[in-house]
Amino acid sequence: MALGDVWAVTPTGLVVLVNALIVSVVLVALGAFLAHGKLTSDVPEGRQLFGEFAIGFFIKKAREMSDGHDRAKVVGVVTPFLGTFFFFILMCNLIVLIPIPIVNRPPTSFYSVTLALALSAVIGNIVLAAYFKGGLGALKHLFWPNPMQWVSEFTDVLSLSLRLFGNIGGEYMTLVLVAAVVPVGIPLILHVLGLIPSFVQALVFTLLIASFLASAIHHEAPKQKKAKRSWFHRKRSEPVAQS
Amino acid sequence: MNPVFMALVAIVPIAAGAVTAAFAMRLISVTALDGMTRQPEIAPQLFTAMLIAMALVEALCIYTLVVTLVIAGKIVV
Predict the structure, then answer these.
(1) Is residue B65 one of the residues assigned to a domain?
(2) ipTM of this predicted complex?
(3) For the whole model, what pTM was predicted?
(4) Is residue B9 part of a domain?
(5) Residues B27-71: pLDDT tens digits?
(6) Which residues of A109-131 are buried (b: 16+ CB within 10 A; e: fewer)?
(7) What is the tens place of the pLDDT at every residue in A142-195?
(8) Is any Cβ of chain A less than 8 angstroms from the Cβ of B55?
(9) Chain B interface, mutation test: which of A115, A159, A205, A211, most B Cβ atoms within 10 Å?
(10) Which of A59, A76, A202, A203 has the fewest CB atoms within 10 Å of its CB?
(11) Residue of B25, B45, B51, B60 to mutate, testing the A interface (most A Cβ within 10 Å of its Cβ)
């Protein structure tokens, strides 16, 4: 294949691009709608409540990995990173429910899309680690404590992309094959069953990125000397027996 | 090559992968459910850990699926 063919516009590539663009536009519009209007720091209601409910999980995840760093900085950077991946993949998976023939092909059922997502996730992890720990710290994570640690980054790309592609692509393939045999009734059941993997795979992708990121930006606390404890100042850990 | 032989070569790995992944998932889900019923207050944490573990197991099965799809694409009848 010549290099020029990579940039050639094919029908399949057009479907991927258009569907991914539709998802992005819908997500941006939804975000703008939810953040529009008065925001309060009191008890939220209406749109703000829904928006806070949607990103609350990722804020919790970001807080868990912020030990030893500036918490506001970590939450402010990591939450959008995780949330974007989750909602983009979720919407890409759920686009199969739209009853319009060409638009309902989920972009995540193409390997190129999942590979791009996984690559951007892993490179983003390295960039974020460099942002929080400095370039040297990020480099150290690739070669320490295991000198071959950098190999695992590549296998992460492979496993993340193949998992998402296998689940969503396999589900879509099953749907198409069954709909060709029994076009009425059975595809509805398959759609309902397909809601579970489309949600779980988006969640799993995000959780795995979060755990990789947590191990990448983990702050090693300096070793502390153990305090000397004399035996008579020892705290009683066992309850005193009542006489 | 004989298409029947090629079809067998494509089918056997995915069957073996699915069976072994099913056994591993059974172990994961039974253990997680056991923990959840013993201690319902940490059920959400257990559920997330269970999902991650299941995804890691499932990835191995997906690899065999990809290999199967590659082989199945080469069958010429």
Answers:
(1) yes
(2) 0.77
(3) 0.83
(4) yes
(5) 999 999 999 999 999 998 898 889 888 888 988 888 888 888 888
(6) bbeebbbebbeebbeebbebbbe
(7) 887 788 888 988 888 998 999 999 889 988 988 999 999 998 889 899 999 889
(8) yes
(9) A159
(10) A76
(11) B51
